[in-house]
Amino acid sequence: MSHAATFATRLLQWFEQSGRHDLPWQHPRTPYRVWLSEIMLQQTQVRVVVPYFERFVAALPDVRALAGAPLDEVLALWSGLGYYARARHLHAAAKQCVERHGGELPRDFDALLALPGIGRSTAGAILSQAWGERAAILDGNVKRVLCRVHAVAGWPGAPAVEKRLWALAGAHLDGVPDGRMADYTQAQMDFGATLCARHDPACALCPLQDTCLALREGRVQELPTPRPGRPLPERRALALLLRDGDGRVLLQRRPPTGIWAALWSLPEHPDHAAARAWFERHVRGDFDAAAVLEPVAHAFTHYRLDLQPLAWQGVDLLPAVRDRADLRWVAAPELGTLGIPAPVRTLLAPRPGHAR
DNA sequence: AAATCGGGGAC
DNA sequence: GTCCCAGATTT
Questions:
Q1: Does at least one atom of strand C sit less than 7 Å from the CB of A27?
Q2: Helices A159-172 and A140-149: crossing angle, nearest 10°?
Q3: Mapping DSSP to helix (H, G, I), strand (E, B) and coil, where does residue A26 land?
Q4: Which of A19, A63, A202, A322 has a Cα at 20 to 30 A from A308?
Q5: What's the rounded Cα separation, in Å, for the pair A24 and A22?
Q6: Average of pLDDT values for A183-211?
């Protein structure tokens, strides 16, 4: 048996001194906390996640608490974090854990993969970090590191490139010493997030200097290959900000699919004709008395949204629609108990923006 | 294979 | 302004 330094042992040695050892989900490192952190960290930076994680585990400290909570509470705890399907899937997965796995997360790759919101990489991250199982991950950090170390060209999100990266990630598992899988997984992510960063990686301090092909070939700056650019379409919509005599705001639950699914938001319509038609069927008041507020620009990954708020005060719902489950008057203190899109929450904040 | 799904950090 | 982040799911 050779004792030559491997990809894994080099990263592990670097990890001892330079890794992150004080992240909140590491103390204590339970399966539930690892799972929750991995879901929150999908496409979301560590710095953003930390306060959400702390608040979430304080309110819902284990699988059974999560499974027993109303979806609105889960969405409220997720409000502002984005990609709300993660919260809905997390909630559904917790219920499945109670029904099928005795209220615990299953210690099995296929069983984890079968839970909503857990894909191949997240399953590997949970198995390795929660139980020390020998499983690979392939997140943005690992993709970047592997693309450089092995000089893999092509956008890492392309299926063919991703397949090659999974093979490389799997091959490196053989070099992980027994009992070190949790640290190895953490080491890869810390290494990619801090030393082998997207901009200006610290190659002079890198433990992989003598094996990194990108460094040898002078291609560190160009790898990994950026995602192909696409034009962003722009969509416009009207947001109806209705307040009753008590200053409560009318919120509407969004449909179960699409953007901001199942969140509470302002009634939204593509144009004035649609807005007026909805208003006249639902509201006792004068549509033309609306105040025109400052537009809100919001950028998604795949399009831009320009929201034009129209505001009324002292209106009421028509009797025929007062008992609709998807419409409710909400007082300011209740806003924190509901999942509300970030730009809408901003719009409803104490400084509501001035009419123009 | 491509599109969908948020919000913000860092440049 | 840009790109992308501890990706998964749907089409």
A1: no
A2: 80
A3: helix
A4: A322
A5: 6
A6: 97
Q: Of A205, A181, A204, nearest to A131 (Cα)? A: A181
Per residue in A17-70, pLDDT (tens digit) is: 999 999 999 999 999 999 999 999 999 999 999 999 999 999 999 999 999 999
Cβ-proximal residues to A322 (8 Å cutoff; 6+ apart), any chain: none
Nearest CA to A80 out of A338, A258, A353 is that of A338
Q: Do the beta carbons of residue A261 and residue A255 sit within 8 Å?
A: yes
A329 CB and strand C closer than 7 A: no
Q: Which nucleotide is nearest to A44 (CA to C1')?
A: C5
Categorise residue A103: left if φ over 0, alpha if ψ from -120 to 50, beta otherwise: left
A38 is catalytic: yes
Give strand letter and number of the nucleotide nearest A257 (CA to C1').
Answer: B5
Average pLDDT score over chain A: 96
A80-84, A98-102, A144-148, A225-229: segment of lowest average pLDDT: A225-229
Q: Is any atom of strand C within 7 angstroms of residue A229's beta carbon?
A: yes
Query: Residue A154 corresponds to which tokens in the numbers above?
Result: 């092509």
Is the CB of residue A342 inside 7 Å of nucleic acid strand C? no
Amino acid at A26: Q
Q: Which domains does chain A have, with CATH numbers?
A: 7-216 (1.10.340.30), 234-348 (3.90.79.10)
Give the tokens for residue A53.
């994680």
| Closest nt to residue A113, judged CA to C1' | C8
Q: A312: part of which helix (H) or strand (E)? A: strand A304-312
| Long-range own/partner contacts, residues A203-207 (CB < 8 A, 24 or more apart) | A207/A10, A207/A11, A207/A13, A207/A14
How confident is the model at residue A140, as a pLDDT?
97
Q: DSSP letters along A114-131, please?
A: TSTT--HHHHHHHHHHHH
| Neighbour-count burial for A316-343, b at 16+ CB within 10 Å, e otherwise | ebeeeeeeeeebbbbeeeebebbbbbeb
Q: What's the confidence (pLDDT) of residue A1?
A: 43
